[in-house]
Amino acid sequence: MYRVAICDDENIIRDDLCRICTEVLDLKGIEYSITPYNSGTALDDAIGSGGNFDLIILDIELKDKNGIAIAQEMRKKNDMTSIIFVSSHEIYLKDGYSIQPIHFLVKPVDFNMMYTAISADLRINHSSTQLLLSFKNKSHTINTNDIIYIEIMGHNLYIHTDKGKAAFRQTMTGIEQMLPGEFFCRCHNSYIVNLRYIDEFTKSEIYLNNGTVLPIGRKYCDSFQHKFIRYMNSLG
Fold first, then answer.
1. CATH number of domain containing 171
2. Under 8 Å CB-to-CB from 158, ≥6 apart: which residues?
3. Could you tell me which residues come within 8 angstroms of residue 69 by beta carbon, excluding any fewer than 6 positions away?
4. pLDDT at position 128, please?
5. In this structure, are 107 and 41 located in the same domain?
């Protein structure tokens, strides 16, 4: 569970940040929770009461407390929770980066800005590149970066890498939940593809850089294209 707190005392901006953050995390396909706070005091109270967050999206210019001051107090307590600062003014940039935030976003924040910032946090602090899978009473570790695509046939799930393929007893839904959502996408009832290995695609087929051609299921076409475009944008 990726736990996010969003603190901004302007209702419209806070709601917008929650909406954009929801869209980003839905696209990434990870389990998450988002808790909004309308003041620095409310956020402080939540943290003081044992509230744990993986990421705090924090307005600097709060009416009751300065966002940088809140973050400084957290750091004094050795709390290294990831922080994304948001502000209407770049003048705070120098002071903000002394906190070692993941990112500093200037309002108005849009989808691409939030996508880049959250992607950085997930990549730096929350990415797991190892899968631990079992088959026939043996455990196997697979680096997700090595996975080209995954397919299911009958009762077996096959993971394809440049070294060949390995069979496991696992469901497609189960393996999807284990994979980093920003790099893997379901493109068919029987296939999950690693976006990093795609050369090109049409409405019905995906061409991988190892020469493999995968089908795109009709019901997955729009979501696949949307996710691949977001992935390519994140590289820029």
1. 2.40.50.1020
2. 150, 151, 152, 165, 166, 167, 168
3. none
4. 62
5. yes
Which ranges of the chain have pLDDT less than 70?
78, 92-94, 96-98, 127-128, 234-236
Pair 231, 116: CB distance under 8 Å: no
Question: Which of 57, 132, 139, 141 has its CA nearest to residue 102?
Answer: 57
Please tell me the total count of domains within the chain: 2
Residue 66 carries which side chain, given as an amino acid letter? Answer: N
Domain boundary among 92, 125, 158: 125
Residue 147 token pair = 């996975």
Question: How far apart (Å, rounded) are the C-alpha atoms in residues 97 and 229?
Answer: 30
Q: Note down the domain range covering 39.
A: 2-125
- pTM score: 0.59
The pairing of beta strand 2-7 with beta strand 55-59:
parallel
Task: Decide: 57 and 107 in contact? Cβ < 8 Å.
Answer: no
State the pLDDT at residue 97.
67
Do 88 and 167 share a domain, yes or no?
no
